[in-house]
């Protein structure tokens, strides 16, 4: 690994990155040659060969697309780190992120940039492990844009030459591809999803392979929205949406638990609703079979535990009731437009899950019948796992008995 003091870190700021401050922090952390750049300076250096340099750019900078084009056309170009949001819809066009070697989230934290810099400098000129570019072909698939990125992976929208269909490709990032535990976790995720081939409640895996050292899989494209986007766009779900998600997600989890798998990551972002109102479950990255070790270490973004049951936070205990609690928290958020507990930091959120009772649904939304409070707040979100519905089959019977509890 090249010493930090020998690496030139060139930073082009923008609305989300104040370059002088970031450079000052990086200097303190050992990258003593970090410096802010203007757009003309940046355009000048990306056209040449700078083997000892790494470029950090705010993805919201108005000139970033031109910079990416120059880098894409230069085989000796320096590595690029883009600072962007997880929701890449705010970073148009989507293909822009497919030009990056690494990503950092905004608001930018110097330590996160440091981790990505260390990954790239450890390669010391080794550029065999690279991400696909916008328009590039991988087997029968063409990269059409970037949908999302998080937790060491990128999700691309791809066009399949077979059947002229749009599909989704999930690919491990450079850093994750060098982390054996993350590669194993990715492989386990695909093996588990293979158990549900033909189940229309589970997002289907269609193919898997490797590109330039990155493991990837191709999944069906869900033409619709995840529940987090439904909440963001509507504020909260109407009765028909809530009832549909409640039943569809319970059916998905019933199949998952029947296969002796605990999902462990039920949250609005992993529950999808198609334009035809079909509910589908994804996000099996940390799913667990009872006999398996817990590959839970996260080397990437640490999320606020909004949907995590107290027994995991206290002792790490994992049962089917774990998913029931997260199911309840997800439905609570959809019904009320807010998660069961609000906090400014993960520590306070954990304390809330362990010690506080959620506000009644009817307090947040008076038209919601008591039956929904009983099921979601009193049963699914019970602190004691034994007080939750014993199974998803039981929960489905309870939902069926609530057919008249409309709002």
Major pleated sheet: 6 strands, antiparallel
CATH fold category name of the largest domain? Transferase(Phosphotransferase), domain 1
Beta strand %: 15-25%
* Average predicted local confidence, pLDDT: 85
User: Gap between N and C termini, in Å?
Assistant: 61 Å
Query: Could you tell me the radius of gyration in angstroms?
Result: 23 Å
Query: What oligomeric state do the depicted chains represent?
Result: single chain
Beta strands, count: 14
Notes on the structure:
By secondary structure, this protein is an alpha/beta fold. The protein has helices at residues 19-28, 39-46, 64-72, 110-123, 174-177, 180-194, 227-234, 239-258, 310-314, 320-336, 346-355, 361-364, 370-380, 392-401; strands spanning 8-12, 35-36, 53-58, 80-84, 102-105, 137-138, 141-150, 153-160, 165-172, 205-211, 214-220, 224-226, 271-274, 279-281. The protein folds into three domains: 4-123, Response regulator (Rossmann fold, 3-Layer(aba) Sandwich); 137-220, Phosphorylase Kinase, domain 1; 225-401, Transferase(Phosphotransferase), domain 1. A hairpin with a 2-residue loop joins strand 10 and strand 11 (214-220). The radius of gyration is 23 Å and the shape is globular. It starts with 7 loop residues before the first strand and ends in a 6-residue tail after the last helix.
